[in-house]
Amino acid sequence: MTSPNASPESPQSGPPTCPRHPGRVSYVRCQRCGRPTCPECAVAAAVGVQCVDCVREVQRAAPVGRTALGAPVRAGRPVVTLTIIVLCAVSYLLQQVLGWSGWTAKLAFAPFLGESEPWRFITGAFLHGSILHILMNMYALWIVGPYLERMLGRWRYTALFLVSAIGGNVAVALFADPAAQSWLTPTVGASAAVFGMFGAVLLVLRRMGQGARGMLVIIGLNFVIGFVVPNISWQGHLGGLVTGTVLGAAYVFAPAAHRKVVGVAATVVVAAVVVGLAVLRYALV
């Protein structure tokens, strides 16, 4: 029998051991909880060391810094933006290796395939027609993406990209003529999603009181290019821009106390409207 007042160093209990690594003797103690802490579990503090459990507890209790639009402040790289770029790059590589029939034809969007294979509304955004095409889109994404990802947060930013991509392809289907070649023409590229980001970042800049003239010029030039350069879908650009602007407005101007609810509701509603327009379009064919 041992005395309840015996210290951990007493002969009855033996030398102190790290609670996370039983059997590992440690005479260093955490400055917060006083438990023995082995070198693997010790974290340097202003005075002495703390165990990893106490450090995690403090981190959980600490207030989370947030941007002006309510997103958690994150240090490091723009994970979502980099993921999209990598996915587009890998997809483009597969396009070159596997050819049209092996990869592109299975994922590209075309109005006549949208009803039977609806995943193409999204997958088409990760395909590109040429090296110049993907370089231009990825450059534009890199220009606005990290800023939007930081201000909106990862989930709203991801939703903005995906819903804008869908909205762009839905617009392609709405403007296409079922009796003409436009109904059969495939559309690829992240341009619609990028235009959706253009619309959203314009609102963010205005909300933050920053000059938006440069972004307006970029949007205008890119939109005009869609009309004067062949093989560019101005319909997709328009659909992505409208979708991204509407969804971005909900994200940017939501009341601070209800940002999460408004963000989720707006994402569901805008996505439902976009899908509803697609369903209506195919019902009228």
UniProtKB/TrEMBL annotation:
<feature type="region of interest" description="Disordered">
    <location>
        <begin position="1"/>
        <end position="20"/>
    </location>
</feature>
<keyword id="KW-1133">Transmembrane helix</keyword>
<feature type="transmembrane region" description="Helical">
    <location>
        <begin position="188"/>
        <end position="205"/>
    </location>
</feature>
<dbReference type="InterPro" id="IPR022764">
    <property type="entry name" value="Peptidase_S54_rhomboid_dom"/>
</dbReference>
<dbReference type="Pfam" id="PF01694">
    <property type="entry name" value="Rhomboid"/>
</dbReference>
<feature type="compositionally biased region" description="Polar residues">
    <location>
        <begin position="1"/>
        <end position="12"/>
    </location>
</feature>
<feature type="domain" description="Peptidase S54 rhomboid">
    <location>
        <begin position="116"/>
        <end position="251"/>
    </location>
</feature>
<feature type="transmembrane region" description="Helical">
    <location>
        <begin position="261"/>
        <end position="284"/>
    </location>
</feature>
<dbReference type="GO" id="GO:0006508">
    <property type="term" value="P:proteolysis"/>
</dbReference>
<feature type="transmembrane region" description="Helical">
    <location>
        <begin position="212"/>
        <end position="230"/>
    </location>
</feature>
<protein>
    <submittedName>
        <fullName>Membrane associated serine protease, rhomboid family</fullName>
    </submittedName>
</protein>
<keyword id="KW-0645">Protease</keyword>
<dbReference type="InterPro" id="IPR035952">
    <property type="entry name" value="Rhomboid-like_sf"/>
</dbReference>
<feature type="transmembrane region" description="Helical">
    <location>
        <begin position="236"/>
        <end position="254"/>
    </location>
</feature>
<dbReference type="GO" id="GO:0004252">
    <property type="term" value="F:serine-type endopeptidase activity"/>
</dbReference>
<comment type="similarity">
    <text>Belongs to the peptidase S54 family.</text>
</comment>
<feature type="transmembrane region" description="Helical">
    <location>
        <begin position="157"/>
        <end position="176"/>
    </location>
</feature>
<keyword id="KW-0812">Transmembrane</keyword>
<dbReference type="InterPro" id="IPR050925">
    <property type="entry name" value="Rhomboid_protease_S54"/>
</dbReference>
<keyword id="KW-0378">Hydrolase</keyword>
<keyword id="KW-0472">Membrane</keyword>
<dbReference type="GO" id="GO:0016020">
    <property type="term" value="C:membrane"/>
</dbReference>
<feature type="transmembrane region" description="Helical">
    <location>
        <begin position="79"/>
        <end position="101"/>
    </location>
</feature>
<feature type="transmembrane region" description="Helical">
    <location>
        <begin position="121"/>
        <end position="145"/>
    </location>
</feature>
